[in-house]
Amino acid sequence: MQRVVARRFGPPQEVLQCEVASPPALAPQDVIVRMRASPINPSDLITVGGAYRHRVPLPFVPGFDGVGVVEEMGPAAAGVRLGQRVLPLGAAGGWQTLKALPAEWCVPVPDDLTDEQAATAYVNPLTARLMLQRLAPEPDQLVGVNAANSAIGRMLLRLLHRAGARAVAVVRSARARALLQDEPAAEIVLQGQALPPLAGGFDAVGGADGDAMARAVAAGGTLLHYGLLSGVPLPADQGRVQLFPLRAWVHAVSRPELHAAMAQVFQDIRTGMLGTAVEARYAFGDVQAALARHASPDRRGKVLFSAPE
Ligand SMILES: NC(=O)c1ccc[n+]([C@@H]2O[C@H](COP(=O)([O-])OP(=O)(O)OC[C@H]3O[C@@H](n4cnc5c(N)ncnc54)[C@H](OP(=O)(O)O)[C@@H]3O)[C@@H](O)[C@H]2O)c1
Question: What positions does the domain Enoyl reductase (ER) occupy (predicted)?
Fold first, then answer.
């Protein structure tokens, strides 16, 4: 089997390499999933960079998202069947041919979803859905979304529209503004421009951009801070900021709650509400080319690692 491995923390292009490895051992309650597709998300690269070094032992295989097929089951593994397509959640490891994990962390995938839809069903769609529930905007309220051209930014714009709220989309370039024309934003603002008073906001950028949005949120409103794309922490808390880590939610809820939330996500993926554009697919052996494509300023969707058909 092949796997993309980080043996030390550092810039992904420098530390990630594809290795040939022995198949994983099968513990009694585990399954082995043959991965079919797994995208590159910012959270994967942040982890490679060492942001979570206190809880990520080296070497490690990145990839929090992805879909595969159950290929082997330990004698005590339950809840899935051989040959079933599943999302193998709970820990990184999607960027390899075979991923071993406890069967209880597998979420079965409905047959009508494509591999691309399933591979991008977890990290962004579930986060967007949960954050919208947390913010609970009222109809006609103005809500800020920065990095609005990102995969999750677009989902938030659509969910806000469905909720009857009005999204103020913040982007960092005229190109991103042009690309957002098809999404339901009430207003598109360039980074650094003044924001209107907001009832709430979603910040994936941090730094000055996140701070500007926090200051635009009216007293009593909430800014959900869920990403650090600028690499710069949010300045001192304005009293309106709440963090949103998907990982904490997923590890805190019961398995039926997780499955119920994913069932709703799958339904919203069918309609396109939580759909993700895919830019390109690469084999694990082409990790450097995949990373370069991910970092390209022209990228318009996710870059996936995928198994040959
Ligand atoms: N807290 C959680 O649990 C959680 C869950 C899901 C996602 N996230 C976070 O959500 C963010 C977006 O993820 P994604 O998968 O949707 O990303 P993505 O589709 O790969 O898109 C990345 C986006 O980031 C924008 N960007 C990069 N650097 C930026 C900067 N310094 N200032 C403003 N925009 C910048 C890019 O803008 P251009 O289009 O202009 O190039 C692009 O639109 C990431 O920070 C990720 O970690 C967090």
Answer: 10-305
For 21-34, how does the pLDDT look when each residue is reduced to its tens digit (9 = 90+)? 999 999 999 999 99
Write the pLDDT tens digit of every residue in 241-270.
999 999 999 999 999 999 999 999 999 999
Q: What is the pTM of this model?
A: 0.97
Ligand 1 atom with the shortest distance to the CA of 226: 1
Q: Are strands 106-108 and 67-73 parallel, antiparallel or unpaired?
A: unpaired
pLDDT tens for each residue of 135-190: 999 999 999 999 999 999 999 999 999 999 999 999 999 999 999 999 999 999 99
CA of 82 to the centre of ligand 1 (A): 35
Testing ligand 1's pocket by substitution, the residue of 65, 149, 150 carrying the most ligand atoms inside 8 A of its CB is 150
Distance between Cα 292 and ligand 1 center (Å): 16
Q: Is residue 71 part of a domain?
A: yes
Is there an atom of ligand 1 within 6 Å of 224 CB?
Answer: no
Question: 200 to each of 20, 96, 182, how far by Cα in Å?
Answer: 48, 39, 23
Q: How many residues does the chain have?
A: 309
**C-beta of residue 145 within 8 angstroms of C-beta of residue 202:** yes
Can you give the residue range of the structural domain that contains 176? 124-247
User: Are residues 115 and 169 part of one domain?
Assistant: no
Note whether residue 263 is domain-resident: no
Distances in Å between the alpha carbon of 273 and those of 56, 157, 187, 264?
Answer: 33, 10, 19, 11
Ligand 1 lined by 205 (C-beta under 6 Å): yes
Does ligand 1 lie within 6 Å of residue 173's CB atom? yes
